[in-house]
Structures are given as structure tokens and as C-alpha cells.
Amino acid sequence: MVRSRFPKCPCYKKNFELDVLAEFETIRYTILADDKFTIVLDNTDFDHQVGELELIVKPEDVDEANADIDAFLEEYAWFYDTLNPKGKLAA
Predict the structure, then answer these.
(1) How far apart are CA 55 and CA 69, in angstroms?
(2) In this structure, are residues 88 and 50 in contact, taking their beta carbons and an 8 Å threshold?
(3) Does residue 40 contact residue 46 with C-beta atoms inside 8 Å?
(4) Quick one: which of 75, 37, 41, 73 has its CA closest to 57?
(5) Do the Cβ atoms of 80 and 33 come closer than 8 Å?
(6) Prediction pTM value
(7) Could you report the per-residue pLDDT of 34-85, keeping only the tens digit for each?
(8) What one-character-per-residue DSSP string does 9-50 give?
(9) Best CA proximity match to 49, nearest among 22, 77, 27
């Protein structure tokens, strides 16, 4: 991706002199819930799972969307670990 943005940079042969921060594989699952919420679940090769809930709305509908998200999270609270959330790189 970096090379596509800087095709003339000679440092691409040296990985743009960037160090590897982390290496892992992720399988991503995308699920439509309640006909409007997108749930994205990532499962890594070191058995860590992380997910996000998305609801795409117009800017004028943000307050209603936040209320809808809160209601969704309350209804499905059994599914989410809200006590100790951890992203993939932190894990």
C-alpha cells in the first residue's frame, strides 16, 4: 500500500525502512444484525477476538443512532466483554 502511494521511493526494497510492529493473521466475519447494524468480528491466530458495532447514518441522525446502539448493546450484553476490552495490538 505504501509503495502504491510512493512509487518512485527507492527505499521500498528495504520495507520503506519501517520496523515490523506485529505479525499475526486475522479472520474477519461481517454480520448484519437486526437489519441495520453491522457487526465486524476479528479472530486472530493467537486466539484473541475483537469486534465492533457499526451503524451508518446521516449526520442529522447521530443522536438517534447513538440511542439505537445503546439499546442494541443492552439487549445483547451477554455477547460483549465490556469489563476488559483489548485491541489486537494491545493483546
Answers:
(1) 8
(2) yes
(3) no
(4) 37
(5) no
(6) 0.64
(7) 999 999 999 999 988 888 899 999 999 999 999 999 999 899 988 877 777 7
(8) -GGGGGGGGPPP-----EEEEEEEETTTEEEEEEEETTS-EE
(9) 27
